[in-house]
Amino acid sequence: MVAGYLDQVSAACGDTVGLHLSGYVSSASVTAYRIGWYGGAGGRVVWSEAKVPVAASQVKNSGAPTYTVEASWPVAARISITQAWTPGFYLLVVRARPHDAGDAIPLVVRDDSDGNGAPGSGSSPLLLQASVLTYQAYNNYGRYSLYYGPKDQSSKRTDRSRVASFDRPSNGDGYQAPFLYDIPLIGEAEKLGLDIDYTTDVDVDRRPSQVAAHKALLIGGHSEYWTRRMYDAAVYARDNGTNIAFFGANEVYWHARLEPSPAGPDRRMVVYRQAAEDPLAKSDPAQATVLWDSPQLQRPEATLVGPAYGELGATGGAFRVLQPDSWILAGTGAVKEQVLKDSLGGEYDTVKNDYATPPDIDVIAAAPILFSGQPAMATMSYYSAPSGAGVFAGGMTYWDCQLVQQCKNHEVNPSTAKLLTTMTDNVLRDFAQGPAGQRHPSAHRPAPSARALISSAASQSDVGIGPPAPAR
Predict the structure, then answer these.
(1) Cα 132–136–141 angle (5° rounding)?
(2) Are strands 348-350 and 243-246 parallel, antiparallel or unpaired?
(3) What is the pLDDT of residues 9-33, one digit of tens each?
């Protein structure tokens, strides 16, 4: 087994990326795959090296109060990003033996021009933002993540990391995240032949202006952690006509800060969760790494996304079509009250119709849920902003993985996957044309109450069942 990480989350043509490896073998092969459609293959080889030297190294933990795990391993190879590396999403797969599955390390290759040779962020209509902060939040390499440490598995989580480092390999849910939440969307978008530029959370934090330079921003299934500059950039872009598609849920939920590590800038991600723990919160409450809708920040995600976070998923459950005339459902053949079997998966969002909800939000479909006997629901929604921008929210983190019928602990219904794929294609194609609200102005069409959805369900199997969600 060989583990590795890169010294950057993204690179542009002309850059050099450092690869750090550790394992109990003398060498390993490394193969770089560009992810896409490629006739159903899912990727193509762009670069490979048969023998990269490997040495066994250890990780270090800072201990309390931040419990930061960092590897700080020596560089095993320096990889030149040449013109052969077409901008896109890459996986660098490290294998100790030829037939190993290997350790896959994500890398985004950016287009840092404006299409005319000047500095920019690419000239494609669509910009896909890889959610590397959320990958890192769930990464438990070295037995610590922003959620848990090895000792306290209770809701208190006293020994979880407060500062997570990109200077380490990925493991657990953090390793699986791109496969579930971003890669299926990338494959579908490239299958359509759409022009796409690629970026990451970290890059948007560094250059917020890039978002508004595109016709639409695409967010995958789970983009939970956002910095202030990311949030500001998305709001500014929407208010100036850039569409935003959230093909997921639990978006824009926690405020994160980026800090340098000894290896370089923006290599550490800070999330204390409690303002009382955050050393910057007392002097500057706006820096507190807490929920975006907290008293310190007062910026509910619903003001941007449309819905707000609901709960940590449910067993079973299905969305029901409420507005079959929506342009997003065009070509699906969907009819009113049609049930999208087994469609609810992962975490979910819900339109709450409170002060933070955009006034003209259109709830396209909703899924009834019971949590310990309490009625709740997940929602798919769309709204148009005064600028003409359109904002779509899929309402569940398992939107993207259903496109390829490969979700974790969730059996995907093929008919539902086909319908979700058509909806995805409709959003991608339309959002690439510019402000969607000019073509499709939204109207306030709320869902029935959660209780009414539950009582009118044709089958109890269409109602999601779940326990109370753990503290987040």
Answers:
(1) 140
(2) unpaired
(3) 999 999 999 999 999 999 999 999 9
Beta bridge partners of 93: 31, 104
Helix-helix angle 172-181:183-191, to 10 degrees: 20
Say how far residue 147 (Cα) sits from the centre of its chain. 17
CB atoms within 10 A of CB 77: 17
Q: In degrees, to the nearest 5, what angle opens at C-alpha 306 toward C-alphas 310 and 470? A: 15
**In the structure encoding, which two tokens stand for residue 456, read together?**
């009118």
Report which secondary-structure segment, H or E, holds 207. none
3-class SS of residue 382: strand
pLDDT tens for each residue of 102-160: 999 999 999 998 765 556 667 899 999 999 999 999 999 999 999 999 987 777 788 99
| DSSP state letter for 373 | T
DSSP state of 99: T
Q: Check if the beta carbon of residue 215 is closer than 8 Å to that of residue 434.
A: yes
Question: Nearest-5° angle of CA 436, CA 329, CA 403?
Answer: 100
* Cβ–Cβ < 8 Å for 258, 227: yes
Taking only Cα atoms into account, the Rg of the chain, rounded to an integer number of angstroms, comes to: 22
Residue 230 identity: M
Question: Which two three-digit tokens encode residue 371?
Answer: 């949590």
Indicate the pTM of the whole model. 0.96
Q: How far apart are CA 164 and CA 32, in angstroms?
A: 26
β 103-110/10-12 pair status: parallel
Distance between CA atoms of residues 221 and 215, nearest Å:
20
Specify the residue for token string 């990311």: 230
